[in-house]
């Protein structure tokens, strides 16, 4: 059953969706992917169960909260592929308000995987890679774009990846976990495949 927030507003939403099990901290660090398989699946099922119990309005209210709430909402939207959140997610990237929450935004867009999601990522990368001092979620945005282009069987990242091009220049200006684009694609793809496995497990549990 979908429910609306209680009278405490954002305090209620934070306690309900972000705080249990230090969820927002696991999402911020990505440590949920390093849990033991059973614990990782339990985490994913809790995410999907919560997402499917929320109205679009409740999810949007959570998304508009502080960074912890926005972070949690973006991952919830991705797990449940809530395309109603696309505009808010896209706007946050476009406005460079992705601090702390960017990986969740990229995950959601990769899960939606429509041409308009790819365009959002292309626009973000075109602007943010050209600013060599701006160190944010460009690696995950590139990874998400590469996931989408593979699903759509289109080529969208080539201009960024040319020798001496935007990605190579940006990587050369500061620390990056890996200079290899495939590394970031694989990380985003791992998140997406995990979410898909959670959906299957959830569906089997409803039978």
Contiguous helical run count: 12
How many angstroms does the end-to-end distance come to? Answer: 17 Å
Category from helices, strands and their pairing:
mainly alpha
Strand content: under 5%
Rounded average pLDDT: 93
What is the oligomer described by this structure? single chain
Return the domain count: 1
Radius of gyration: 17 Å
Sequence of secondary-structure elements: HHHHHHHHHHHH
Overall shape: it is globular
Most strands sheet: none
| Total beta-strand segments | 0
Fraction of residues in H or I helices: 55-70%
Low-confidence spans? 3-8
Which tags fit this structure?
about 210 residues; mainly alpha; globular; disordered N terminus
Please, could you describe this protein's structure?
- With 207 residues, the chain is mostly helical.
- It has one domain.
- 67% of the residues lie in helices and 0% in strands.
- The protein is built from 12 helices and no strands.
- Helix 6 packs parallel to helix 8 (115-128).
- The radius of gyration is 17 Å and the shape is globular.
């Amino acid at each position: 059953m979908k429910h609306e927030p209680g009278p405490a507003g954002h305090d209620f939403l934070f306690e309900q969706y972000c705080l249990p099990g230090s969820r927002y901290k696991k999402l911020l660090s990505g440590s949920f992917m390093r849990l033991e398989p059973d614990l990782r699946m339990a985490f994913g099922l809790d995410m999907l169960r919560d997402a499917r119990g929320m109205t679009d309005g409740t999810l949007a209210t959570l998304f508009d909260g502080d960074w912890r709430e926005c972070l949690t909402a973006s991952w919830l939207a991705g797990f449940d592929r809530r395309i109603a959140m696309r505009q808010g997610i896209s706007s946050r990237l476009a406005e460079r308000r992705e601090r702390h929450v960017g990986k969740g935004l990229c995950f959601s867009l990769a899960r939606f995987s429509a041409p308009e999601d790819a365009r959002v990522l292309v626009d973000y990368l075109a602007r943010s890679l050209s600013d060599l001092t701006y160190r944010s979620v460009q690696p995950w945005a590139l990874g998400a774009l590469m996931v989408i282009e593979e699903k759509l069987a289109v080529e969208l990242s080539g201009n960024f990846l040319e020798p001496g091009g935007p990605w190579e220049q940006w990587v050369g200006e500061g620390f990056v976990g890996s200079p290899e684009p495939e590394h970031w694609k694989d990380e985003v793809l791992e998140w997406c495949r995990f979410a898909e496995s959670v959906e299957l497990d959830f569906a089997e549990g409803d039978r």
